[in-house]
Structures are given as C-alpha cells and as structure tokens.
Write a structure and sequence with these properties.
Length: about 575
C-alpha cells in the first residue's frame, strides 16, 4: 500500500501541479491558449474579464432536450458561461451528445479569451449513468465494495472515463464516497462502496486515480456525507443528526484521504446537520463547512461544486433561486450548478451581478472562484499525459470507442468477483429435466430473464412485474405470483427494491424451492432466512445478471463479501 500511495501522489502531482515560475509579463493579446505559466495566465485572464464574464464563469447549466437550446447558446456566446452539464435526458443518442458538446465548445472558442467549457456529467457506474446510448452499464460501486479489490475501483473508473471522454466530457461527478450508514437509504444505496470508512477511502483513492489516468477530472461527493439519511435532497432537505466529532471521525475519513491525494473536485451536498448548523442551512450553503472546515481545517485546494441548486434541499432554506446562488457563492463554492438553463435576466443573474458592483467582498469572492475555475482548466486542457477530452469529439470514431471493448471484458470479470453467496442451500443449483422453473422479476430488467433462460432452458416460465411497485399493489402482485408458483418446482426471483421484497415474501410458505438473486442494495432480503439460496449481485448490469446465473449454476465459486455491517 505504501508504494500505491506514492504512485497516486505522483499521478496527482503531474496532473494538477502548481506552477512555480516567477510572474511573467503577458501581452494584452494573450488568450487561454497562450504559452505562459498557469498561475500567471490565470491572473491575467481574470484581470481581463468583466464582472459579467467572472460571474458566468462560475455557473454551470444543463439543458432540456437532445440539443442545447438557443438560450444556452446565448449564455455561452454572449456571456462566457463557464461550464455545462449533460443530464440523462440528453443522452440516448451519443452521437448527438458529441455534436452538442462540439458546438458549445466552438462557441466558447469564438469569444475573445477563448476559455473552454468544463463539460460535466454523472457517470458513477451502476444505476447512476446519465450518459446512456451505447455506454456501458457497469456493476457499480457496491459491487466494487464486495470484491474489496482496489484495482476493480481503478479500472471501473478508467473504462467509464474513457467512454465519456470520447464524447468530449471532461468532468465526472464521481465517485460517490458516501458511507452506506443508513441501510434504509434509497438515495445512496448501491451507489456507495460500503459502510467502512477505511474501505471506502481506499477504493475511492483508486477510483479517482483511474479517472485521472483516463483523462477525466473526478469529483468526490457528496460533502460532507450523504449516507446517514434515507431522505432525497431532490425532494426535501435530508437531516443528518450527528455531531461534529462523529462527522470528522466517520463521514469525513474518505474525504480526508482524497484531499491528501489532491483530489481536484468535491461536490457539496444539500444536507442539513442540526447539531453542527443549528440555523438549518444545508452544507452546500454553509461557510463554516465549506470554507472553515473543508478549505482551512482540511486544507483542500481544489474546486468545490454544488449539487444541483434546483433541488428542494437547496432552495427550501434559501427561499429563492437567486438567494441560493448568492449563499452558495458566499459559502465558498467555485461552481454553482443548475439542471436548467436560467433566462438571461433571471434574478439569479441580475441580483448577483448587481451585488458585485455594490459589495467589494462579494466581488472578490466571485473573482477568487472564477480564478480557481480557470486555473484548473489550464491545468487540465494543457496537460499532455494523460491527454484531455477533445473539444471537438470525432463522431466517426465513436462506434469504435463506445462501448469500450476492453472494458466489456473487465466489467464481466469484475461482476464475477463481486457475487456474494449470502445463503447456500442447494448450491450450486443443478436442475434436471423434470424441474419446472419460474423466473420472476422486474420487467425493466430483461437481462435477468435472458440469462435465466440461457442457463435453465427456454421452457422456463416467466413472471414480470414493475420495479418500484407501489406497496399496496405489491401485495396484490405477490399474491398473483404465489398462485402462479403452484405450477412450478423452483422459483428464481430477482429482488431489487422494497416492493420486490414484498412480492417475494409471498413465496415464503409456498413449499417451493425459492432462489433469490438480489440486485442493487442487498438490505431488502437480509431476513429471507426461509429462502433456499440467496446471491447478491449489487446491480442490474447485464454483466451482473450473467455473473449471478453463472455462479448459481456452478461455473465459478462466488467470493464476494457484503460491504455492510450486518449486525445492525
């Protein structure tokens, strides 16, 4: 491990090293691409920028629809917007994603300072995969946590990053380093590497290194920790009722580890800590947590990026979107993210722009944030090894690069290493011609049924229900499944959520052999002691279903371990 730490430090220092050259005289005609030391050029660019350009540089907007709107194009062309975000609703056509990014970068390059855009997305692996189309559905973080192999984390990030880099995406909001402390959480769940701060720290370090090696900037999230709550900050403010000592000795351990490795970006979460912030402000708007704790006490030097400010977790406290932006800037965020593109004269723009002209301290804060954004752009775009994502992705090569061919082989092997045999009954399951098998599971996961019929024959019966079924209807579906099961000897059921668990429980007294294949979080089936066999796959990736059925039929011996404290 000591050697690995040195390797990571070397990688990070090469990728994001500070410039040590003396102040250089830079001519007035210089642009972002002029050949001067990064620190000096960042100062020059910031001094050349208007208040409008400084403020726009710290904004990041998403867009609705397949192509960037005329409004977003105006933000880039007329105001010098600093960053854009690719959300899941833009991405079924990866060719169009690449064309959209290229178009936006060309508009940014037509401005006088030629500052390129940060182009971000959420490609965590597992079920958070905003760039869809032909990109790989990977086993995800909890599957990595189950194998406990650092190189699984490294190569997962590496291949994920290679795919999105081919599209021109240079900033990834991953890894999620939240601890899976609250087992009832449906927000974090299998997005987490697990519950142990030490294990999550180690796997996070390798994930970050893999992303950087592929040429994409990683972002650790959600500071200071989203794992000890079952609430979703999209809907309301999650409350995490722990004190500062607990936070520092538990949730912050993975963040401290990554800060020591010079992680380039951290995302602030819309999370409420009443024992630490009694006035109710979320962490994303807290100067104490972001400036005093993260910057000063923990010594973090990189970018701080808000989670989406359109979430109720942010606006509920601030009262308005314009005030949310103001408080986020004052708290110490460098990039303020909004999933939608603001109108040109919305208050979030006009109010904060006016404040820059009347409040010298606020203007200095904006200027400091803009300088940090530009500095990290200089570090990134002028780096030679690894090469940055292209400003203008080559669409003629996308079919060769996405999905990544080497990545396909890796993710299947990674899925196999993650499979966990939680309960072994008649295992491995070897059927005979007289057995009648029913495959039951969410209709959203056709790969479950495909792999089941490949292993156990096309004459298997199937029963398909909806994932995330409402609780009341889940009972009805479970009764129907139990009735259908009377005609079979063995039921192999996929359980991926709470409602699927309710459905599966109706098989408890069926008198049939019940085999449970758990996808996503395994917490829903931990008390299924009545089932014959239980295997954990942690994901609905095609690779995970292939691995689950391969393990069930005895093709290999599963060696994964549950990365949770099961004594809770």
């Amino acid at each position: 491990m000591k050697l690995s730490s040195k390797i990571f430090t070397f990688v990070f220092s090469i990728f994001f090293s500070s410039n040590i050259f003396a102040q250089t005289k830079i001519p007035d005609t210089a642009t972002f691409w002029s050949d001067y030391p990064a620190e000096d050029l960042a100062n020059f660019l910031v001094n050349k920028m208007t208040d409008e350009e400084l403020l726009a540089q710290i904004f990041m907007f998403g867009w609705a629809g397949k192509e960037p709107s005329g409004l977003l194009n105006q933000w880039v062309s007329n105001r010098g917007l600093g960053s854009v975000k690719v959300f899941g609703w833009n991405t079924d056509d990866t060719m169009q994603v690449a064309r959209s990014i290229s178009s936006l970068q060309k508009k940014a390059q037509q401005r006088h300072l030629q500052i390129p855009l940060f182009v971000a997305t959420d490609q965590e692996g597992g079920w958070i995969r905003h760039v869809k189309g032909e990109t790989t559905v990977t086993p995800g973080n909890m599957a990595i946590g189950a194998s406990q192999l650092p190189m699984d984390a490294y190569y997962s990030a590496y291949y994920i990053s290679k795919e999105i880099k081919a599209l021109g995406i240079n900033l990834n909001f991953a890894p999620t380093i939240d601890l899976y402390t609250d087992h009832q959480s449906t927000v974090i769940g299998s997005r987490s590497f697990g519950e142990s701060p030490e294990s999550v720290s180690l796997l996070s370090e390798y994930f970050v290194a893999g992303s950087i090696a592929a040429g994409v900037i990683p972002t650790a999230k959600h500071f200071p920790g989203h794992g000890d709550t079952s609430r979703d900050s999209h809907i309301s403010v999650p409350v995490i009722n722990i004190d500062l000592e607990t936070l520092e000795n538990r949730e912050l351990i993975p963040f401290k580890a990554l800060i020591a490795q010079n992680v380039p970006a951290i995302m602030s979460g819309h999370l409420c800590f009443p024992q630490i912030l009694p006035n109710g402000e979320p962490a994303s708007l807290s100067k104490f947590l972001l400036t005093d704790l993260l910057r000063k006490k923990l010594g973090y030097k990189g970018l701080i990026i808000t989670d989406d400010t359109m979430m109720n977790g942010a606006t509920t406290f601030a009262g308005s979107l314009s005030n949310t932006f103001k408080l986020a800037i004052e708290a110490g965020n460098d990039i303020i993210l909004s999933s939608s593109t603001a109108a040109l004269n919305e208050p979030l723009w006009t109010v904060n722009l006016n404040l820059m002209s009347t409040d010298a301290e606020f203007r200095k804060t904006v200027q400091t944030a803009a300088r940090r954004v530009i500095l990290y752009k200089l570090y990134y775009f002028k780096n030679k090894n690894p090469t940055p994502a292209p400003l203008y992705p080559d669409t003629s090569k996308l079919s060769e690069l996405i999905p990544d061919k080497d990545g396909q082989k890796f993710f299947l092997s990674q899925a196999c290493r993650s499979i966990t045999a939680y309960k072994k009954g008649d295992f491995p399951y070897q059927t005979n011609t007289a057995d009648r098998i029913l495959l039951a599971g969410p209709k959203q996961y056709p790969e479950f049924f495909d792999e089941g019929t490949k292993k156990y024959g096309a004459d298997c019966g199937t029963y398909r229900f909806n994932a995330n079924e409402f609780v009341d209807s889940a009972d009805w579906v479970g009764q129907e499944l139990a009735s259908r099961a009377k005609n079979y000897d063995t039921i192999i059921i996929c359980v991926s959520d709470k409602s699927a668990a309710i459905i599966a429980r109706h098989l408890k007294n069926s008198g049939k052999k019940v085999i449970v294949l758990s996808a996503l979080s395994p917490v829903h089936v931990l008390d299924f002691n009545w089932a014959d066999t239980i295997l954990f796959g942690y994901s609905y990736s095609p690779f995970s279903f292939k691995a689950l059925f391969a393990a069930l039929s005895g093709d290999f011996t599963p060696e994964g371990t549950v990365p949770l404290d099961l004594k809770k």
